[in-house]
Amino acid sequence: MSDQEPTVYNGRYELHRQIARGGMADVFLARDQLLDRPVAVKVLFPQFASDPAFVERFRREAQSAANLNHPNIVSVYDWGEEGGTYFIVMEYVEGRSLAEILRTEGMLHPDRAADITTDVAAALSFAHRNGVVHRDIKPGNILIAPSGQVKVTDFGIARAFGGGNTDANLTQTGSVMGTATYFSPEQAQGRAVDPRSDLYSLGVVLYEMLASRPPFSGDSAVGIAYKHVQELATPPSQVNPRVPDSIEAITMRLLEKDPANRYPSAEDLRADLRRFREGQPVLAAGGAVAGAGAAAAATTAQPAATTAVPVTRTATTTAYDDEDDYYEEPASRTGWFIAGLVVLVAVLVALLLIFADALGIGGDDGGSGDLVEVPSVLELPQQDAIDLLEAEGFEVEVERVANVEVDQGIVFAQDPESGERAEEGSTVTITVSDGAEAFPMDDVVGSREAQAVQLLESKGLVLAENGIERRNDDEAPEGEVLEQTPPAGTNVRAGDEFRLVVSMGPERIPVPDVEGQPAAEARRILGETGFEVAERSENSESVPEGAVIRTEPGVGTETPRGDVVTIIVSDGPPPVQEVEVPSVVNQTQATAEAQLTSRGLNPQVTFANSPTVPSGSVISQSVAPGTVVPVGSNVGIVVSQGPGATTTTTEGGGGGGGGGGGGD
């Protein structure tokens, strides 16, 4: 990517510089040329882009993440493909990742750690209510803005990468080493995860903020995963004596091996954190000790949790840090062998238990009913799932949950899971998608069209085909939203359509021709047409007094109805200016002409002999002094040539007045 020709995806997103590199993608600072704003663009590595199954999961998850609009979640704006390269466009967050803060600052004050955890829990609570489990909560995916605002990133992308397959997670180069530190036990065992798995990972992050290190570390991803399943976490107060008992209780509750012993939901976690910050007793103080039943949990470990391939770490200091693992470089091959051997023993125990269960050995069912294998009803419509389960002899309980990823009415979870055996007549709970979570329609009336469309589309709503109607409005300026459908406050869901009525401003009409009309008539015509009328006057040689000379704007100009049109009315010809003729007799010719010219009169000069008036002086003038005449009138003067024969020579234009007046 050269400086002269930057890479631009979809003709819109111009990449500026790389700001992070993760296990599955590079992250670039870019500019959205359409909206003129900075964005972060995550570009997938080619090895993932060549896997059609992964790309399809990636697409679905990107769309799901785009519907998570929450103050503590990094927004996903767009996704696309260009030339075989797949990318996601996200909100650009200035600041640092929690991973970088922990590297540079070490352990955090318990109050600060509680506040960050509270905000992350708010993000998780919103995502879980919308059917999205993060699966990759870690410090590198928690961003802290300079203002202190906490934002969680990579929602849905982690699931697109893992898809719930631990074997894939543990063997995909560049990904597991950044996440094994924060695995929940059920992730490490390859079991299905639910929102409580995110809470365990958040517990690891909280522990690390309090103790400056995670609860478990090791030589390899497998070794760390094994510890998540088998070992008890050392209480953080033994690492940092300043950790209060109440927040330690919260942390250890989150780190319970059995999901049933953790907080039921992220909202319950937030409530306990608020109690801690307010100095009230926390509910976790009465909970079970973290790690209870760890040995029993370990017996269910699956073989998928026994494979791993080490990766190379990539250091970065940006807020989009994808690499924040805490495993150590292997000291020797012996370490790998011992870790693998320990996990292999756990897997063999699990296989023996599964085999014994299949033979009916060690029956702890406690019931007398026949055991029946539970069929899979995932991805079936609700009624089809009920019919299938009832046909196998089960009772069915239905739970409906909002889920942006699954079509409404489709089963996306079941308990017990498919393949498990349960007593005939027992209850199978199926979780059915209720579609996207409903939310109240925003009020965009009075907003500018572009802003209204951008806001509604950011909520997952879709502008209907021909969804913009335009009409004139005498009050609303052009481009302002007049009406919306659905109305503000109506419950809507992502994917619903919306329509807008947008103002074209007042209707434009041509100015009528009233030139030459009397002013009163012109006012009437313009007023009936729909204009306000103003008036001013000026002199005109050609238009009679009281008639319209012209209009402003001019005749035929398209003008908004209700605007002011000014008529210019004639005052008739300009008034005549008059001046008094001065006496110039006996003055020199030059002085006489100057006096007449200065008063706006036109001197007309003739010459004559005079025995009494010196040569060059005025003998007489055609208009008597004191006479009032119009400016511009001609005044004749006779200038002496001295004694001699009587001859007359004329200068000037002649003709103004006679040579009246005595000369002596």
UniProtKB/TrEMBL annotation:
PANTHER family reported in the protein's UniProt record: MITOGEN-ACTIVATED PROTEIN KINASE KINASE KINASE 20-RELATED, SERINE_THREONINE-PROTEIN KINASE YBDM-RELATED
Pfam families: PASTA, Pkinase
Organism: Actinomarinicola tropica
Keywords: ATP-binding, Kinase, Membrane, Nucleotide-binding, Serine/threonine-protein kinase, Transferase, Transmembrane, Transmembrane helix
Protein kinase domain residues: 13-283
Keyword Electron transport: no
SUPFAM superfamilies reported in the protein's UniProt record: Protein kinase-like (PK-like)
Alphabetical GO biological process terms: negative regulation of fatty acid biosynthetic process
All copies of domain PASTA, residue ranges: 366-434, 435-504, 505-571, 572-641
SMART domains recorded: PASTA (SM00740), S_TKc (SM00220)
Protein name in UniProt: non-specific serine/threonine protein kinase
Catalytic activity: L-seryl-[protein] + ATP = O-phospho-L-seryl-[protein] + ADP + H(+); L-threonyl-[protein] + ATP = O-phospho-L-threonyl-[protein] + ADP + H(+)
Gene Ontology MF terms: ATP binding; protein serine/threonine kinase activity
Region (Disordered): 470-492, 640-664
CDD domains assigned: PASTA_pknB, STKc_PknB_like
Superkingdom assignment: Bacteria
Regions crossing the membrane: 336-356
Listed Gly residues bias regions: 651-664
